[in-house]
Amino acid sequence: MKLSYPSKVYLNGEWLKPEEAKISVFDRGFLFGDGIYEVIPFYSGKLFLLKEHLQRLRYSLNEVELQCDISDFESIILKAIELTELNAADGAIYIQVSRGMAPRTHYFPENYDATVLVYAYKTNLRGFQNQFKDVLVSNDLRWHRCDIKSVSLMANILANTEAKKSDFSENIMIRDGCFTEGSHSSLFFVKDESVYTHPNGKFILPGITRNLLIKLCKENNIAIVEKALPVSELDEVTEVFITGTTTQITAIKNLHFPDRIINFGNDIGKITRRLQLLFCEEVKKRTGVDIS
Asked: Which of 149, 164, 202, 253 is catalytic?
């Protein structure tokens, strides 16, 4: 996948070319990773689950006591899509809020002005139904507040880089003998015709697509169990899939452990297929865009 920079970014009230956008070397986001981020998808220029993503942004900001007025973020987001001429394209919005510039201390400064960055970028959101991925499995070495969408992502980056080095699409993680989530995705298993996923809490990010999928299960008589799946029960699992803002719902073919490979067949499972179809219907209902 070819990556590129956006043509315009919003930084602290100004729309700038990326090469013109500058922050202080004393910005706490730069020094400490003291900041929060959010990613919001759009289909043919139409935002999807905007309210839910902004609610999660508020939650993370509150959890780290980062003061920032986000009441005008919706208009900024729409302007980002317009200025980058993505009104007819699929893509995502990136938002980052740091605690801004202050003398370097290991405690929050009393006075600061948050640094706000917003931009839109193009990405492929079609064809996820045809993907059948291999993923790596490793120990979850992240901190104990994975529910906060922090820019401090070194553990996630190390995990995803380890997967990429072996040409895997994701690294899913185990903590205390149970599966948690992926380095940048939520994780689901199908066992006994029921869908299992780790409950929300401090060990996983409250995924927006994850929450939508749980809602779709409940509305369509698909049994959903919010319970951490022990590795010891993996032999009873018939389907595995991951979800995320740009991942959407992607089926997993093989789990690669250090000492073995667990295969889930040569075809995407029926429950995963049904949920993918329901997700496409939800996108069309909310945006008017057909991605099936």
From this structure: 149
